[in-house]
Amino acid sequence: MTVNRRQFLKLSAGATLASAFGGLGISLAPSVARAELQKLQWAKQTTSVCCYCAVGCGLIVHTAKNGEGRAVNVEGDPDHPINEGSLCPKGASIFQLGENDARPPKPLYRAPNSGEWKEVEWDWALTEIARRVKKTRDESFQLANAAGETVNRTEAIASFGSAAMDNEECWAYQVILRSLGLVFIEHQARI
Fold first, then answer.
1. Please, are residues 62 and 77 in contact by the beta-carbon 8 Å criterion?
2. pTM of the prediction?
3. Is the predicted pLDDT of residue 35 greater than 60, yes or no?
């Protein structure tokens, strides 16, 4: 019997697969996954949506019933039509958004021409941001363009939105930006 190169490769691949999976006791029949529900019976379940991208995967968030309201577990929602319980690596680590010891407890501020960051209070940081936005907008606001048409805009401020916002937050954010007169508005999900 003569065997050409192509037949040899086919036979070799078939024999390798048969020997690799044949003796391991692996069944290719569908199996049923069963979740262990007892471990979180003491927690309240709430459905949510992953905030990382525009796909909108469903989540089940377990929060403590003892009044703290802290998330104790986050997993994919098997009843959600988009992800059917599966999550990408970012979605699987979404628990760390709220529970992360590496997150700075206060805002960090680096003064102009300084090489060091320092902790500041939230009230100071939010007031400073608002003051700088208003100052920049007031200095650069245009009522009309060169042709005399009313434009009511500022081109000195731009916004690059986050995919960590849901539709309602994006809508509210757009309203704020457009009321300030911004025209350079972009979003991470569009790029």
1. no
2. 0.56
3. no
pLDDT of res. 164:
66
56 contacts 64 by C-beta, under 8 angstroms: no
Q: What does the DSSP 8-state code read for residue 108?
A: E
Q: What does the block give as tokens for 182? A: 């911004």
Residue 19 in any domain: the answer is: no
Q: Is 70 exceeded by the pLDDT of residue 36?
A: no
Q: Give the residue among 41, 38, 48, 46 at the shortest CA–CA distance from 83.
A: 48
Q: How many domains does the chain have?
A: 2
| CA dihedral over 118, 123, 126, 127, signed as positive or negative | negative
Give residue 107's pLDDT band: very low, low, confident or very high (50, 70, 90).
Answer: very high
Q: CA-CA distance, 17 to 13, in Å (whole number)?
A: 6
- Pair 115, 92 in one domain: no
**3-state class percentages of the chain: helix first, strand second, coil last, to nearest 5:** 35, 25, 40
Residue 138 clears pLDDT 80, i.e. is over it: yes
- Residue ending a domain, choose from 54, 69, 97: 97
Instruction: Tell me the residue range of the domain where 186 lies.
Output: 108-190
Location of structure tokens 């319980």: 85
List the one residue out of 122, 127, 62, 123 whose CA is nearest residue 98: 62
Residue 181 domain-assigned (yes or no) = yes
Domain CATH code at residue 85: 3.30.200.210
